[in-house]
Every structure is written in structure tokens, then in C-alpha cells.
Design goal:
By secondary structure, the chain is mostly helical. The chain is built from seven helices and two strands. It has a domain at 2-127 and 196-230. A two-stranded antiparallel ribbon has the order 1-2. Belongs to the tetraspanin (TM4SF) family.
Length: 271
Amino acid sequence: MAISSNCWKYIVLTFNVLFAMSAVVLFGVSGFLLYRLFLYRHFIGVNVEYPSILLLMMAIITCSIAWIGWRTTKSMHQIHVIITGLLIIIVVVIEFSCFVWAMVVWDNTEIDIKTTMTSYFAQTAAAKDPNSADAIRWDRIHVRFECCGVNGPNDYTSSGRVPLSCCGQGPLDELHKPYTSDCSALYQRGCGKPVHDYTRQQLLLVAMTALTASILQSTGIFCTFFLAHAIREKRKMSLRHSTTLREGTYAAADDSLLASPSAPAPTLPKY
């Protein structure tokens, strides 16, 4: 049983190393996906970013739990190992919840993005400043997704001027000509659908990352509790061995008392 417990000890130590490495990878992937969503936060809303934010936080927490698991595994204290296993369970459950959350947002994101983009477009159009930060963001999204407005170039009918970015050029290309009324390469599609498709793609990557992390890290739950069981069995065997030695010592002492009585042997009286 001692060999078995040592075997599980090294298995769990190896898992904690891999657990920490997975946390580093999870931190990088979730941070990258959060950055890609953050770039278009004005068009897609902030609620879409929450699953990736939670996943990023779990990556940081996972690193801490990996360090705790390493220390508790080396100490071989059963109660501490069990607590570490419970912490891993909490991490796995939250990561799986993040997967579910991302899929729910993925399924309902079309209406939210449409509403957010329409509101932001109206706000930008009301400012009537082609050099404002909001207008430049629209120029960038026009060039990035090869689109125009929310539903198409007709969205600019009220202003009477279509931005030059709807032809594939930004305001930095021609500073003195920010608008164009005649463009043979004018983008006809709106930005609503391509931005929606882009957001769904990022959310799907967030969901798959969370699901993969929860499945891989769940193996540590079994390893940790098997180690706790091995520690308990080793302790039971040690107690049984100690009890056997103690009983053997008492039995040897009783036999020596029977063989060497304390009273002197009787002798014949002298007359």
C-alpha cells in the first residue's frame, strides 16, 4: 500500500504541473479572445465579453489552486488533499458553466448586436463630426468587414453623405475628402451581419476553450481523491501494524512473567 500511495503522489504532482500549464494556456487564449471582442465593444455591447472575462479570472485562480495542490500533495495530509480536490471540482464546474453561458450568449447575440449597433449609429450620426472617435470607429469597421452602415449605405440617406470608408478607404487615406457621393466600389451590405458572424465565432471559441479546459482538468479530481484514499489505506495499515506489534510485545511480557515467577522456590526446613 505504501508503494501505491507514493505512486498516486507522483501522479498527482505531475497533474499539478500540467494543471498549472493549462492555466497559463487558458490565460493566454481567453485573454486573446477577450481582446478580439473588446475591439468592437461599441458595436456588440459589453455583455458579450462576460464569459471570456470569467474564463480569464478562472485561469488566474487555477494557477493558485495548482500551487496549493503541489504543497498539499507533498505534505500527504489527507484532509488537505481532499480540500484541494474540492477546489478543483469548483473550478471545473465554473468552467463548464462558462461554456454554457457562452453558448447562451452565442444563441441570443443577434438581437443584442442589432440593437447596440443601431443605437450607436444613431448617436454617431447625431454628432455630425466625421473626425470624431465614434466616426473613426465606424470607418474602421467599414474597411475591416467591407460593409457600410448597419443595414447598408441607405442608412446614410438622412445625412446625404456616405463615408469614404464605405468604398474601402479610411479618413486617413484622404484627409480632405472624408465623404463620397459617387463610388463604383461602394459596399452594399450592412455591417450588422458580418459583425454578428464575427462575434458568434469568438463566442464559439470561448465556449470550446472552456469546455476543453473543464474536461481535461476534471481528470485531476479522480487522481486527487484516489490519492486521499491511498493515504487513508496506508494509515489504516500503519495502525494495524502498530497494534500487532503492541499486542506481540504484551504477549511476550506475559510469557516471561510465567516463566520467571517472583516468589522464591520452596525449600526443606532445617531441623
